[in-house]
Amino acid sequence: MKYLLGIDVGTSGTKSVLFDIYGNEVSSKTVSYPLYEEQNGWAEQDPLHWWNAVVTGVRAVLSKAGQNCEIAGVGLSGQMHGLVMLSKDGVPLRKSIIWCDQRTAAQCEEINSKVGEKRVIEITANPPMTGFTASKILWVMENEPHIYSQCKSILLPKDYIRYMLTGELATEVSDASGMQLMDIKNRTWSDEVLKKLSIDKSLLAAMYESEEQTGTVSKTAAELTGIKEGTPVAGGAGDNAAAAIGTGVIKEGSAFTTIGSSAVVYAVSDEPLINALGKVHTLCASVKNKWTVMSCTQGAGISLRWLRNTCFEKEAYEAEKQGTDTYALMDKMAEKVPIGAEKLIYLPYLMGERSPHPDPYCKGVFFGLSNTHSKAHLVRAVLEGVAFSQKECVDVFREMGVDVSDMTVCGGGGRSPLWRQMLSDLYGCPVKTLKADEGGALGVAILAGVCSKEYSSLQEACDLIVKKNEPLMPDKEAGKLYEPYFELYKKLYKSLKDDFRTLYNI
Q1: Pairwise CA distance, residues 442 & 62, whole Å
Q2: What is the pTM of this model?
Q3: pLDDT above 70 coverage of the chain, percent
Q4: How confident is the model at residue 476 (pLDDT cuts 50, 70, 90)?
């Protein structure tokens, strides 16, 4: 029997999943690694840790499948925007500056100055972002010239794994469109932006569509991973574009919300719709001739993880004894707290913010904290704060004319019944969940199947594989109760915006 392998290079770990051609999971392995935060607002990871996680994970899933496991194709997904710089020998020159790093505010202003505020949006479909790759390249160019001078190749995280698997320097449109170096409408590198930023085009990888073959597994990689030499490797997709495939969101009118380390609302469009204020992003979809409108809340699941690690050591111990998850216990605690967390509001800006406020200076806030509040109130406030952020982004989508009425909720946070219900109540529309939520790994496995001709088309593959549960319906009365808290939530950012910058400069 033939199988498909999906590899998803996440922020907390890399997940390798083996699927049969019907999309059923055969085996799965996640290998974690550290995040380095050497200064406030910095976030880096070691690309070699990603590769080691792939080798370990793939060998583990293949060993469970047995000796008659024939892999038809490999698909790659991963965290977007990370900067990987390689020497002429293909060795990483420094740790990767990843998606949530916020050090590049000055470089974003520099991009506006060199390219032009209006022109950069016309070409790249987005204003300069600290999270995007272009500003990171400029930061290294200006602050570590000795590193930059040795750089011969610039890759994204999943594309570094592709290089290690195949020896090919390649990327694909969905991930590359988050580098701020592409002509988004024409799905190619922008010579104009590269020239104005003094970035040599030869540093960038060859670009493909997501379902196209980008190379085959090399002899060296085959020996390390156990994947057969010559196995085709598809273009794959950035994490959210891959999740779109895995949730069946491949045509206009469909959308999903995913809550992982960050939270994203993602919708497909037949045209490259652009928000001139940069409240949401426009990128190339992992579907040919399609684009996406996408938001990103930087500190979504990160906020809940921070709260767990800071305040819930006792509960973590109890969860381990009970054989359950700490987050599940936290969810149960929050269910007992009424809507509004008894007048406690949380702003989820631990890592700065991108959507709908592209602001690297803002920080997390608990507003209204009193001595009557317990840890349960903190959990409820965090869940609501992240949900408010998604609602604020959905409102921007609707203002742009983007249809988000067919909504699927996925990701780790989507496993929380309470969080899902909050989203349905705030969006005012039904939300669906997947019968098998494998997200990005399944999405790129599907792309690998299209690449290797196991499926005649992406639509055929999604119709065969992606199955959804009955929708969760919104509670209109709950929606009304959320309204005053949501309105105050939106006002708080405006009130604190200048103070965030003042705090940064102290």
Answers
A1: 16
A2: 0.86
A3: 100
A4: very high
Residue 91, judged by CB atoms within 10 A of its CB (0-12, 13-18, 19+), counts as exposed
C-alpha 86/C-alpha 100 separation (Å) is 21
> How far is CA 251 from each of CA 73, 243, 266, 270, 364, rounded to the nearest angstrom?
24, 14, 11, 8, 35
Contacts of 394 (CB under 8 A, 6+ apart): 265, 404, 426, 427
> In 3D, which of 191, 39, 193, 83 has the Cα closest to residue 128?
193
Contact by Cβ (8 Å): 248, 81? no
User: Quick check: 257 and 97 in contact, CB under 8 A?
Assistant: no
Q: What is the DSSP letter of 163?
A: H
Q: Which domains does the chain have, with CATH numbers?
A: 2-247+436-465 (3.30.420.40), 295-433+471-501 (3.30.420.40)
Report residue 291: phi and psi, to 5°: -125, 175
Strands 345-347 and 281-284 turn out to be unpaired
Phi–psi pair at 199, nearest 5 degrees: -105, 125
pLDDT at residue 411, as a whole number: 84
pLDDT tens by residue, 23-62: 999 999 999 999 999 998 899 999 999 999 999 999 999 9
Sort strands 281-284 and 291-297 into parallel, antiparallel or unpaired. antiparallel
Q: Which residues of 386-420 are buried (b: 16+ CB within 10 A; e: fewer)?
A: bbbbbbbbbbbbeebebebebbbbbbbbbbbebbb
State whether residue 383 is helix, strand or coil: helix
For the cut 90, the answer to whether the pLDDT of residue 318 exceeds it is no
pLDDT, tens digit, 9 for 90 and up, residues 381-410: 999 999 999 999 999 999 999 988 889 998
- Name the strand (E) or helix (H) holding 429: none
Question: Would you state the pLDDT for residue 4?
Answer: 98
Tell me whether strands 70-78 and 237-238 are parallel, antiparallel or unpaired: parallel
Residue 499 appears among annotated catalytic residues = no
DSSP 222-243: HHHH-PPTT-EEE--EEHHHHH
Catalytic residue among 101, 239, 425, 437: 239
- H-helix or E-strand spanning residue 221: helix 219-225
For residue 410, what are the β-bridge partners? 258
- Tell me if 83 sits within 8 A of 140, measured CB to CB: yes
Taking the alpha carbons at both ends of the chain, their separation in whole angstroms is: 62
Q: Within 10 A of 25 (CB to CB), how many other CB atoms are there?
A: 16
Between 417-427 and 375-399, two packed helices, what is the crossing angle to 10 degrees? 40
- Coil, strand, or helix at residue 72? strand
Contact 30, 19 (CB under 8 A): no
The CA-based angle 192-195-200, given to 5 degrees, is 125
Question: Which helix (DSSP H) or strand (DSSP E) does residue 6 occupy?
Answer: strand 2-9
φ, ψ of residue 76 to 5 degrees: the values are -120, 135
